Amino acid sequence: MSGTTKNYSRYLYAIPYASWMLLFVIAPIILIFYYSFFDIEGHLTLDNYKRFLTPVYLRMTISSFWYAFLITAFSLLIAYPTAYLLTKTKHKQLWLLLIILPTWVNLLLKVYAFLGIFGTYGLVNAFFETIGIGTKQLLFTDFSFVFVSVYIFIPFMILPIFNALEKLNPSLVDAAQDLGASSWTTFRRVIFPLTLDGVKAGCQAVFIPSLSLFMITRLIAGNRVITLGTAVEQHFLVTQDWGMGATIAVFLIIAMALIMIVTGNRKWGVKQ
Amino acid sequence: MKKLIQLFTVVFVSAFALLYVTSYLNSSEGYSGKNTLTVYNWGDYIDPDLIKKFEKETGIKVIYQTFDSNEAMMTKIAQGGTTFDVAVPSEYAISKMKEEGLLLPIDHSKLPNLKYIDPRFLNLSFDPGNKYSIPYFWGTVGIVYNPEMLGGKKITSWNDLWDPNLKNQILLVDGAREIMGMALNSLHYSLNDTNKAHLQEAKRKLDALTPNIKAIVGDEIKMLLANEEAAVGIVWSGDAAEIMSENEKLDYVIPKEGTNLWFDNMVIPKTAKNIEGAHQFINFMLDPKNAAQNAEYVGYSTPNAKALEYLPKEIVEDERFYPSDELAEKLEVYENLGKKMLAYYNELFLEFKMHKK
Hints:
The complex is a heterodimer of chains A (272) and B (357).
Chain A: H1 5-35, H2 47-52, H3 55-88, H4 92-100, H5 107-118, H6 123-130, H7 142-167, H8 170-178, H9 183-194, H10 196-211, H11 215-219, H12 228-239, H13 242-268
Chain B: H1 2-28, E1 36-42, H2 48-58, E2 61-67, H3 70-79, E3 86-87, H4 91-99, E4 103-104, E5 133-145, E6 170-173, H5 176-186, H6 196-209, E7 213-217, H7 220-226, E8 232-236, H8 237-246, E9 251-253, E10 261-269, H9 275-286, H10 288-298, H11 313-316, H12 325-328, H13 339-354
Organism (chain B): Thermolongibacillus altinsuensis
Keywords (chain B): Periplasm, Signal, Transport
Subcellular location (chain B): Periplasm
């Protein structure tokens, strides 16, 4: 300890951050681990982990990953061209604002709106009816679940990609074209690799929350899609089997950490 | 730095100003900490006019909060940090809360209106002598259906639901005991069955129902059925009454195999701060005229014998909501099966939900 005032004040400034991390990040994670070792009657046990490794929960895990993957893939598919287009428009900030705007509306409210839009007598089916396709069941299908989730998460995919594209030096694109690269090659070899960090950040921001979605599974998928998030909610609120709920949460934390490591490694590398 | 301090000062000053304004507004309306009453009830389960009437009569301000499952309510009360003065749990929750010491005894001498309650609803096994709970509403679990959408077909029993013609037409309420109970009843088992072989059999029977199930939802079921999103729904009787008042084509039936009979009772949780006010509130709700008004608004069946006189005849004589004694014998009350058994019910229900078409 050097003991200079400058050092002291630095520690002082770290207090809010450190106590925040301790209270709201580290302590809850420790608590989750702690609870995961207790069964419903409060006995210390490893049963919850054994139970998680049974077909029921493994199938649930696989289906959660599958839906999260679908949601992320479709978000990316729509978000990348959108973000690209945004960088080329005149009133960028205005368009960006319009994309961010829906995130200010309460999530539940947006989901409820889809109950009306996708319903048998809803807007979409009325349209199908007039153009002669006839009424289709939209609500409570895999399609509507993925669609609504993509709608909700897409701003979080567009923003990081947009930022990455904005930072891209246009002279690099010009250079590629001057050197005879086709526009596809330019995209594949220059633009995409340089915006990969944005894509990764976007995928993290979408994939990780998608894994533990729960309200939408009931409202839009009618509990026909069961994710790990649904099971956590059930165990904490209905069954009051906090141990099992915590065990699922432990696996979610591990999965998320793995995803962060896999998709975030470039940041730790030599870049910049 | 100077700017930062300025900013913080502004934030603090405005926060305190707001705090002062709210407390001033509250006291100017005559509300202090002492004469408020926090009522913790199911969503959409009281006529709001009655709350206003109670506030006017007693000068007590009511803070009304809602929950959507007994389990969520118990968790909140057990964890503390809340000051609910009156809560309205269902019978199995009451026996559980009693065991865990979460309830305060009710002083019957402060409830002169208790005499109006039909003795059939007093002194039941979950709370002998009504030491801790006073009846609020009762009802059944049954089937709401739209005869028009089914081409005039009538539904009378649980087993009718397995008809292949009902493909993708059934909405279920998201409750493990309700749905497992339905399957158990359809197999002529008790809905309090704890025999694991029977429960497995019930779960397999539910799996076989999957092609007919459109969705398993919460409170949205009311809106979805009223909008004719599906032809059949498994719901609580009061929800059925509400749905039918919105869409007159729908009908409600208590299945002939029998079903669940439930009670929601008013209790005073141990977190109560205004015990006197809580008694006043309970007595107010027991008043026959108030009970009748509430029953008409909410749509559930009132246990208040005198209140029936104030209700329209078509409500009181409706066997779907006030079943005959013959049918009433087939109805069963949920017993508190214990945490472990309940977890087993939930596990099976979760597995059933994951069963793909």
